[in-house]
Each structure stands twice: as structure tokens, then as C-alpha cells.
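2024-03-11 09:14:02 INFO queue: dequeued item beta-glucosidase, len=642
2024-03-11 09:14:02 INFO validating residues
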Amino acid sequence: MGKRWVAAAVGLAGLLGTTALADSPRTWRDLNHNGALDAYENPAVPTARRVDDLLARMTLAEKVGLMLHGTLPGQGGNPIGLGQSYDHDGAARLIGSGVNSFITRLDADPAHFAEENNAIQKIAEGTRLGIPVTISTDPRNHFEVIVGASSSGGGFSKWPEPLGLAAIGDEKLVENFGRIAAREYRAVGIQMALSPQADLYTEPRWPRGNATFGSDPATVSRLAGAYVRGFQGRANGLAPGGVATVVKHWAGYGAEPEGFDGHNYYGRNAKLDAASFQRHLAAFDGPLAARSAGVMPTYVIPHGATRKGKPLPPVGGGFNRPLIEGLLRQDRHFTGLVVSDWAITNDCPEQCRAPTAEKPQGFAIAMPWGVEDMPESDRFALGANAGIDQFGGVADPAPLLAAIKAGKLSIARVNQAARRVLALKFQLGLFDNPYVDPQAAAHVLGDPAVQAQADAAQRAGQVLLENRGGLLPLRSARKVWLSGVSADAARAAGLEPVDDIARADVALVRVATPHELLHPGAFFGSRQHEGRLDFRADDEATRTVAFAAARVPTVVAVDLDRPAVLTALKDALALNKASALFGLFGASDAVLLDLVTGKAKPQGHLPFELPSSAQAVAAQDPARSDDSRNPLYRRGAGLTYR
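2024-03-11 09:14:37 INFO prediction written
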């Protein structure tokens, strides 16, 4: 087989997708351009031997490049990767420096998304050893979109939030969701899911809880395990064609006082004790048993957490050797890849530590908690020696190389990390063919039959909390006064929207859980829902509900991205003998109207308790599940129609 023929086969693969290489045993990729079939290029050779062969060919700088997980830059050089296309020149510079793992945040139609990811693989193919790129993403199949936590775009099917999947509680459904989402990921050229969140949701004000499976460790463990099995394609590890999962955030992330999040300097501390910490760890049992390909340690400093009776050191999870090498690898026998959360090795200057509205944080993003005053190269050495194989959100190999030169990081540790990164690339099939078919992607994503399954899950994942006077399902009412709900969706459901509530048979009001903008200068704090959870008498939402309930039977639906205090709304609804109250966990207006009109029955049960007052929220222990005094609704509450 000549070099020229091999190159033509590779080019054909780029045009036709996976079939050109996968279906023919005679084709192979001459990744190092030497015209010979080397062991690491040979699909018939066992993975361990392929890894050994490739490692022996790599320079130290190339191995260090494997330990970085950067961001594919967006068009115009957008530093966090937003846009409809990549900055190809910028990507080429990063790949040329040896980095070949990246998160994507593109918002593009499926075919173009696939073409852009193919272009990235083509750049990688031209490097000295042709090492393919692993492309990862934050979740894309839900409603909530927050930079740094989730992404949008690409035509992915839209499912309930993970809290909604927890409200259903069906492992088979979650596993099926994972299989479908993984097929969509692979269709556009994404091979790694930076999910699921197996964090235990114990502090109700915490803004990251929407992506968890709730407050019960057994439920979280069970459903996060199903998520991993679905995405990875089998019960005990990564199957060919599956998507590697990186379960996060090991461990105790949800136990943050006042709910302030660990992306921010003011949220760097978690408050635990030995007993509560064990419950946070137990939530990871299911995904670890399913052999998640990766684990991501938490940002926060786990104060009060212990291992074998000894306190963990007061540093963030990515620098915490007892947390990673002890609790994860030794005690739970994890052998996969440990990927740090993003930007833990960056400097955090005053602009990062104490931003203001006048002098905001901007892109001075860093989370080096507990080691803020340590030199950058020392942070890399500390993290790698603690057990980090790959550093997220960074793409400059110089600090790691400096740590090695200074004798603070051994070559043996670099080889160990590089081996784990390469083994996963081989398991994903990237060395044999990383290309995808853009036309096929356009058919896989946007499939109406798949969205029908997702819509059914949306219907099942919503919780009916009150149905006074048997108001629901609506039988004869047809004229509806709306607030926060699409009039077009109401018409499609067979209802007649009216502007004058005096003409209405019923009112339908949709509102969001209250929140406050407490840290407007912080990059993440300005985007996250922080602060109070309680509806108050002078809130517009409360006034709207009271206005409607004083006049007509009223249905209220609250989007519960956090556990809202619904006492004021419940009191307002008491003005009418016929009223209903929903808790929503990722639902379109069409799905809500299907539940209201009886086309579907509510089936969900609360994945956490709903406190009764702001005082009860303030008094609860941030590390313990469902421990507020006299909750208005307990975890598991939920009604249906007779």
C-alpha cells in the first residue's frame, strides 16, 4: 500500500464520514505520514500496545499537550468559543502546540456543526503524529443555558432538566435519553460529555442544582449511573460508538453556604461534616459502578470532609490528593481519566477576587481555590501530583513544562496521564476515523420521532402540587387569560386566549423561581440565579396570581430551577376554591397545556423538598438533604388526575 493511496483514502473518509474507513479492512490512516502501517495506526492491534507505540514516538512537549483540555475558539477569536463557526487559524495554533482535547460551545445547525468539527480533525491530521482531537461539550439537551454550565444550539432534542428526569425516577428512561443524546453528539463529531452532575442538591439556594438529580443520594446514584450507561453504550464502560462521560463534581459541591457557587471567589468554600460528606460521596456510586470514563473534581474547598478520620486539606478538589488519589482511586478503584474543572490553575487577581459593577471581572476567570497565592507552575504540579490527568480550560503547556524542569513533576507522572488520555482516544475510535457525515447529522438531529419521546418525558417530568376543587384537567373551560404562556400554544391546544380576564373561564400563569443579582460584577455571579427563593406579596408574580385568583379559577406553573418557597402563591390561590399549582422541571408551553387540558396526566414527584419560608431556608444545613423546618411540600410530593 503506497503513501499516496493511503492519503486518498483519508481524504475520502473526510468527505464520506465513518464508512470509508470503518467498512474496509484495507484502509488505514497514515497519521505520521511515513508510508508504513505503524502499530498505533493499526486497528487490529490491542489498545495497550497502540498506546505504548505512540508514547514511544512522542516528545515530552507532545505528552504535556495531552494534559491540557482547551476551548475551541469561536469565530472572531471569541475566547469562550461562542459563535456559529470556529476560528480555524486560532484552532490550528492550539493544535500545533500539542493540545488535542477541547470543549466546543458552537451554536450551529447540525450539518454545519459536523463540518466544523471535521475541519478541526483535518487540522489535527496534519500534525507530526496525526493525533486526533477529542471534542467535549457541556449538556445541550435541556432548557437551561448558562455559559460555563450548559450550551445551546445544534438542533439537539429537548428533554426535561435532570431534575425533571429525577421527578420521573425511571432508570430505563434516563438510559434511553443517554443513548439518544449520545447518538446526536457523535453525529456532529462530539465524543465526550462533561456530565452528568452527580452532585447532591443539599443547599436550596445553589444555582447549579438544576442539572443534578435532586437531594436523595440513592436516587442520584441510580439515575446518574443510568445516564452513564446510556451515553457510554453499555453497563460497564465505554462501548464502540459511545460517548465518554465525565461525572462531576467529586465531591461535596452542593454544600455551599448561602448557595454561593464555586465558580466565584466568594463561593469557594463548602461546609460539610464527616457524616454528610459520606452522603455526597454515595451519590457517585452508580456512575462509578457504570465505569464512567472520566471524573471531574469539584472547585470548592471541602471544609469538614474527612478520609479515614483525617480532615482533607483546605484546597480545592483539583489540588486535593486525598480526595482524588485516596477516596476516588484507592478506595473506589477508579482507573479512568481525571479532568479538572475549568481554569483552576489560572491567576485570580483582585479583579477576579473582588469584582464590582464598576470594575467587573470580565474574562479574568480563575478558580485556584486554596492555592491563590501559589505560582502558576506550582499549581499545575500540585494538581497533577494530586491526581489530575488533564487540566480543563487551559491550553498553554509552558507552566507544566516549567514544573517538570524544576523537578516538581516527574516524567513518570506525565507518562501516566498521557497514557490515560490516549487510551480513551483509542477507545473512542478517533485514531481510526474521527470524521462524521454532515448530511447524516442533519437527519439524526431534529428527528420528530426523537422529539416526540423527549416531549413525552417532558409531560411525565412535571409535578402537580395542588388541584383544589378538581379544576384540572380542564373540561368545559375554553376561554383562557394568560400570563407568561404563549397565546399561540394555547390556540394550538384548543383554547381561546382573551385579553380581558372578565371574559375568561380560567387563568393560566407561568412564573420563574425568585432570584437576586447579588454579585453583578462577577462573571458567573452575574449570570447565575442567587439569593432568595421566596415569593413575596409585592412581587409582580404574586400580584398577578392574586389578581387572577380573585376573579377566575387559576392555574399557576412555577419553573423550579431551585426549590422555591411557594407559600405566598399558595395563599394567593386560596382566594379561589378552584385552583391548581404545578412545579415545572423543563417543559415547553405546549407540554404544560397538554397537562392542563388533560391530553396527558402529571406523573412527576418532587426531587427535593420545597421550604415553607425564607427563615427556614436560612436555618437549614447546606450539607444535608431536605432538612428545613416544616417544609411546605416534602420530597416525593406529587398528584395526578383520577
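2024-03-11 09:14:37 INFO annotate: DSSP finds 23 helices and 18 strands in the chain.
2024-03-11 09:14:38 INFO item closed
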